[in-house]
Amino acid sequence: MLHKPNKIWNPSLWASWKPFGIGEQYPNNYWEGVRAVWENRDRLSYAWDILNHGVCDGCSLGTTGMKDWTLDGFHLCNVRMRLLRLNTMSAFDPQQLADVSLLQQKRSSQLREMGRVPYPMRRDKGDKGFRRISWDEALDCISERIKASNPERLGFYVTSRGTVNETYYAVQKAVRSMGSNNVDNAARICHSPSTGALKTTIGAAATTCSYKDWIGTDLLVFFGSNVANNQPVTVKYLHWAKKAGTRIVCVNTYREPGMERYWVPSIPESAIFGTKFAEDFFLVNLNGDQAFLNGVIKHLIANNWIDSNFIKNYTTNYSQLQAELERQTWEDLEQISGATREEMYAFAEMVGKAEKAVFVWSMGITQHECGEDNVRAIINLALMKGFVGREGCGLMPIRGHSGVQGGAEMGCYSTVFPGGRKINAENAELISKYWGFNVSPKTGLITSEMIAAAAENKLDVLFSIGGNFLEVMPDPDSVETALKNIPLRVHMDIVCSNQMLLEPTETVIILPATTRYEVPGGVTETSTERRVIFSPEIPGPRVGEARPEWEVLMELARRVHPELSDKLHFETTAEMRQEIAQVIPQYAGIQHLKEQGDQFQYGGSHLCFGWKFPTPNGKAHFSVLSPSFDELPAGYFFVATRRGKQFNSMVQERKDAITGALREAVLINPIDAEKLNLKDGDKVLLKNDWGEYQGRVYIAPMKPRNIQVHWPEGNILLDKNKRSSEGVPDYNALVCLEKIG
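and the corresponding structure tokens:
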């Protein structure tokens, strides 16, 4: 049994004795509520219905209405309130796009504020801007271009922002009916290393536990993850975890203020006095996680703080890992990790004494060239104590977007079919039988490969549902050049973005999409904890001629292959869910979701329950890892990109309410700043072979020789060719730092 929270107020857990954290730096969530009311004042009733009945389109926590599945009570966060306006705003006047030169200097936030995309629009080479067209003209143009092209020269991309399972499923089925597997989604550039590493080690490619396991477990560790910023509703769980005696620990290059303390607005004790979360921070170098964890495991073995029975009976490759660790010296592990042997011991002692633990990680672990091995290092640590497949234990790659978990599971992925099946001849034949038409057995282009193909004039059509490659991909200048090479670009979205405004090689088409709350029949999303949740249609105002993405892609596929029309048609989303349940075994049950509150958690509360691992030999696999080190030349720093007050690439404020840092901040350790004679606010230049970035010094509790800048502004410093084996770009670099003036 997990420890139960003690609901008596406890001053030892308070962040400050000052009521409501007066003078402290943290988000004013009450002001966010006032702001949301004012911003949505023209459609306040509709906004309320969305909040009260819809499933959140923010992070993948999966709140339905203003309740979730972990705790009773009111649940609403500032991320959801900031996104609310995207669902309630009215349409912009199409004449605003008649001359794009007037818009090209606008920031993305200003383009969003114009309003919703109301109608299909077209711009041809030589045109100053876009003109309104009919849906028939738009789909005829796209389908004719697809038919005139080769399937290998097509590219389809789906963002994760608010995207639902039905869209993912229909899009990938439509694309595959056209003979191509070049369909990818935003999971490729965030948690694809997690999926790959989990699949090859424990056989389960998703979070193994539930959020309930956070509250009352012995140890809750966050690796490269800042949930206070990216999944703020979870701070309520952290509060109750602390009240239940859970020890919270962070391993990161920066002592994140929001993970140290927070004022949870919906809990009176925390709203007044705040809550201290992480008791311990272990600061490591960029790419130092593997070395740090290898050192921790060496201590666990040396002190016999391991579960020998579990290792012997339920795992393989332990002896190979042990032999490799014996070869690795403490001096090397200290140099690579940036942590001392004593710090590794301290963390190992916490793990060793814990009977139960949950390990959570995010982009700080995955968005590296070695992202898969970073995840495997965390899995190795969990396997030392059998921290998987039982209550209060688990491996959790926490998702930052409401739609991303279902993307690959629906098959909207260039490297897997629905259900996570590998793309090969055998599975292509199986899927072909399900659908009644031939499916290609050839692996498709991943996201970065689509951009590379465009750069080489090897892509004829790019159909992007949401997303903005100019902001999310490394080396934005090269991305812009590549996009301008594509003869036909199609952008389907609810708002305008700057990638839509790039000059057409031949033609650019904009298509208006509905939000998830406008889709007839309702839709579903899959949360971080594998909970498949029904989100009903919310009656209210509708925008122009906006249509659901799934419906448009199905119609497009029928125009490309009219002979398959009967196989490429769904009357309703409910009919589609019937097929999903048949094609994707773990989603059996989705066909029964019809009303608000309907949900199920595929795989149950714990995957690998009872230490039954769905691997070929039925056992979990340790990974033998040999971390490498990039020597830092004099004057150089490791630089990582971080999020501020934003949702994905959607920057919402110039100042981050949690850290106090402005968008141009270069977070740097005070020791490094002193050596370089730098003080807060000084202008500095970061440069390497890929680009230059000007910012201002922001002295922060960073690991020495490590700095951080905001993403996507820092993307100009990144090598577009550097990515992990699963295809996630490396959003980190080495830079030289110089003072300006």
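(Above: one complete record from the training split.) Residues 304 and 327 are 19 Å apart (CA to CA).
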